[in-house]
Amino acid sequence: MASYRKFSTIFLFILLNDRNITHEGNSSTSDNVIQLTTNSIGGELQSSVGRATYMDDVLLWDSTTGRVTDFETHFSFIMLAVDNLSYGDGITFFLAPKWSKLPPDSHGGYLGLLSKDKATDNSTQNQIVSVEFDSWRNDWDPSPDNVGINVNSVVSVANVTWKSSIKDGRKGNAWVSYNSTTKNLSVFLTYADNPVFRGNSSLFHIVDLSKFLPEWIRFSKLRHRNLVQLVGWSHERDELLLVYEFMPNGSLDNHLFRGEADLTWEVRYKIALGLASALLYLHEDWEQCVVHRDIKSSNVMLDSNFNAKLGDFGLARLVDHKLGSQTTVLAGTFGYLAPDHKSLMKPYEADVGFSLVEWVWGLYGGGKIVEAADERLRMDFNELEMEQLMVVGLWCAHLDSKSRPSETQVLNVLKFESPLPKLPLELPIPVYLPALPFAPDLPSFAGFTDTLTPR
């Protein structure tokens, strides 16, 4: 990729095979090289930007080992500043998702990587790792001639100043390599004649490339007895097919609503414990918090022993435990979405579904919550367990997300290791307070009239 700020600079890659190269912007092939800016001097060269992308998929994930693969690449380039007073910003080698395209308004110091409005925000949604060979000093650059490693931004996380000019027309040879064990991304640049790469580097930085894999691949690393296991996939002809382990007893909804054999209370309570255990793993125990966003009976699968296994991670999102989620798109099945999710459009760990009806809360307030039990059980159940499960269900459906339990609390109550909470006797009614006076840009604040105390 290359970008031109003023005029009078031509960027060249040595070209070996153009059949698998996609050209965007001003990128083209000429005289057996990839030329990334317009091949002219003058006004047409101003703000010129081009991107050349390898069309075929690059293997970064080894399904056999379940880890990111090592890689190494070598390329040669020439940056020639015809006018020493005006020249371009540089070129980059980049890794990005297959669907990545040349963004609008990405010329100049944005190097064809990111549009101007996203170039410096360091958002994980940018999904791009690059090595830049910079020839123009922007506000975020340490020097006019430098080599940098960029992660989701044009602001380098590591860089080194190049003591000689990068844009003097000499041929540079660059090696970019990645060690998946140490997560070390290293760069070696030399202008020597007949160069040989022996593993040394001019620059390096620790980058976890597993965070740049598609989320469905990262979900394949999940390992828990109460999760449906992904056993393989096929990604050919732009069609993704996922293969999961076979569940002999199908989904929970078939047994609850579609005429399959009735489930005894012992089996139902075991299913509830298994689902709570799966969510504890997803929310708190795995390396990142996984917010499923579509928990319902049709996504709870049952193995040959009627053990619950949560499946269908098509709407799930990864959330950093410390940073929180940046997801702003509403997703899920209506009737199973938390009410705050629909209004704020932000998933929470407490967003475990909202399908309980108000009359159940009324039964709780009247001390008759076990009357909400499924009639098909014919009162053949453990009343203490039924009460535990019903109250935990109401607790999880509390309108105030801050008043809902963590998965640790849920599991402890279901195992009778912690007491039941004391919930409001009536379904809490949300109270919306207006914005403060003389602050029209501040949002309204939501509050609730009841509090939660231990029982």
UniProtKB/TrEMBL annotation:
CDD domains in alphabetical order = lectin_legume_LecRK_Arcelin_ConA (cd06899)
* Compartments (UniProt record): Cell membrane
Q: Which InterPro entries match?
A: ConA-like_dom_sf, Kinase-like_dom_sf, L-type_Lectin-RKs, Lectin_legB_Mn/Ca_BS, Legume_lectin_dom, Prot_kinase_dom, Ser/Thr_kinase_AS
Q: Which PANTHER family match?
A: PTHR27007
Listed GO MF terms = ATP binding; carbohydrate binding; protein serine/threonine kinase activity
Matching PROSITE patterns:
LECTIN_LEGUME_BETA, PROTEIN_KINASE_DOM, PROTEIN_KINASE_ST
The name under which this protein is listed is: non-specific serine/threonine protein kinase
The Protein kinase domain, residue ranges: 160-423
**Keyword Cell membrane attributed:** yes
What Gene Ontology biological process does one annotation of this record name?
Answer: defense response to oomycetes
GO cellular component terms, semicolon-separated: plasma membrane
Origin: domain of life: Eukaryota
Which EC numbers characterise this protein's activity in its record? Answer: 2.7.11.1
- Provide the topology term for how it sits in the membrane: Single-pass type I membrane protein
Provide this UniProt record's keywords sorted from A to Z.
Answer: ATP-binding, Cell membrane, Glycoprotein, Kinase, Lectin, Membrane, Nucleotide-binding, Receptor, Serine/threonine-protein kinase, Signal, Transferase, Transmembrane, Transmembrane helix
Known Pfam families for this protein? Lectin_legB
The UniProt family comment states: In the N-terminal section; belongs to the leguminous lectin family. In the C-terminal section; belongs to the protein kinase superfamily. Ser/Thr protein kinase family.
Its top-level enzyme class, in one word, is transferase
